[in-house]
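Deliverable D4.2, example record:
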Amino acid sequence: MTLSVFVRSRALRHGLVWVLVLALIGLLAVLEPAGAPEKLRRMAVLLPVAALVIYAHFWALRNMLEQRHYASYAATTIGILLSGAALLVLLNQLAHVVQTRPGGHTTFAYLLGLAAGNLVLATVLATLPHYVRRGVLSHYQMQELHARQLETELSLLKAQVNQHFLFNTLNNLYGLSLAAPDQMPEALLQLAGLMRYQLDSSRQHLVTVGTEAEYLANYIGLEKLRLRQNTHVDFTADLPHPDQPLAPLLLLPLVENCFKHAIGPSGDNTIRITLSQTPTGLTLRTENSIPPHFKPTPSGLGLPNLRARLDQFYPGPRHQLTLNATVTHYTAELRLQL
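Output generated by the structure prediction step:
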């Protein structure tokens, strides 16, 4: 039997508690033998009545308090306690349980109050674990629900990355088919490899820095096929720890933006992409020239998607994204704490 089965089984939980209560009473009788028969007789009367009151109170909790029938719950609880107290006093007399009032005459009101106090204490002690357990279960259920919500959001964001990448790449391939149709077969093969990586990585929570760098290199190679002679692309990667885990497809949007915004029909175009790594961090820096009279097209997907995924995978100080745009250059720097 697993722990989860025990936690979910009410009969097992309650059975264990009553066994522990009986064991404790037996242990106290052994440790203090003086007056043990009288104490055991008192407990033999008290425990069944307390159990009756406790389970009747649980019924009132489920059917009245948790249904927001507060007045009915209060009246029923008082009735349960008074009825239980009266029953306990009666059974004590039938069992000849001795109960004396220190310094005074023992009256029925005193016995009834004493019995009610014992039953209130037993009910409170039984109810507290009930709500503590419910609070703990609720906490873990909320955590599980939050994790599922995050997983769903990440899946949606990954799907947006795939669509965004495919849209931009098909536009590039269209340009390549006009400028250099003989390079289309090689470009399509590279695109197939990139799509395969995206398909595989979208099913994984983490990839490695090395595989992500290789993916970027292949993407840059595909983009270079369509570039003219006036565009210079420089990609360097210094990765002494390529097996470090990394969230997939986080680096691509910044690299995509370089090729989307840096290419002009005339003049020199430059793109510099640097990927460097330390034992605890990874830095991607991109820099591209901006052609004269460049008018950016608002896509609305790339950077917002990237920021959302960074918040999910590397929240708070674990990531730093800095963007800087001038008239002639655009730089982006992403620092991740791995």
